[in-house]
């Protein structure tokens, strides 16, 4: 019997790319997201490949409880829930914006892992989604970076707390996904290119490149407590 992977946030971007690659490697995959239209679109893209899908709001404890009860026993959990945008200076930062980051990313990550424990295999894996902003100090990243740092630190803590289950995180750099939909379409590509122009690779990443790292963390049974950068060299600092 093939192993089962649940991908929360698997209806677009990095989560959808991860679901596609996991299916290609023979896993049974359950994708979930809170938007029914995106879920339907994802299932059409992944059709006839051993995938099922459900609508769930990962910030809702009752929905999560019902979701995992319906899914039943599984082997690996991938959480790629995120919140769009968020580059905001401290002077412009509001309490509502801080809550949006926490409620849109940190809280869903932690609530999802907690809800999954009743049916996640005792030596299975959890992979979370941070971002390279957790380690950068650019102006405007105070809320975004702090939220991603919290998710990545949670992966380290939970690797110890939930052992022998493995817990890791990926930390992407600038990736061309719907996360950037807050940027007007006419300047989107220019913005993406500009955001990584000085990095070692000098280009935005692709969702499938981050998905490849997620698959590694799912499959490598001796890797836990790791935050794996997939950032095109962003952490090296400007090199161009």
What do you see in this structure?
Belongs to the short-chain dehydrogenases/reductases (SDR) family. This is SDR family oxidoreductase. Keywords: Oxidoreductase. The chain is α/β, with parallel strands linked by helices and 240 residues long. It has one domain: Rossmann fold, CATH 3.40.50. Helices cover 41% and strands 18% of the residues. The protein contains seven helices and seven strands, in the order E-H-E-H-E-H-E-H-E-H-E-H-H-E. The chain has helices at residues 13-24, 36-45, 61-71, 95-116, 142-161, 185-195, 207-219, and strands at 4-8, 28-33, 51-55, 74-79, 120-129, 166-172, 227-230. The chain has a seven-stranded parallel β-sheet, with helices on both faces. Helix 3 packs parallel to helix 4 (95-116) and helix 4 (95-116) packs parallel to helix 5 (142-161). The radius of gyration is 17 Å and the shape is globular.
For the structure shown, list the relevant keywords.
Rossmann fold; 7 helices; globular; NAD(P)-bd_dom_sf; SDR_fam; SDR family oxidoreductase; oxidoreductase
Task: Give a nutshell description of this structure.
By secondary structure, this protein is of the alpha/beta class. 41% of the residues lie in helices and 18% in strands. This is SDR family oxidoreductase.
Strand content: 15-25%
Separation of termini? 49 Å
User: Would you tell me the structural class of the helices and strands?
Assistant: alpha/beta
- Percent of residues in helices: 40-55%
Widest sheet: strand ordering: 3-2-1-4-5-6-7
CATH fold description:
Rossmann fold
- Provide the CATH architecture: 3-Layer(aba) Sandwich
What is the overall shape? globular
Our count of helices gives 7
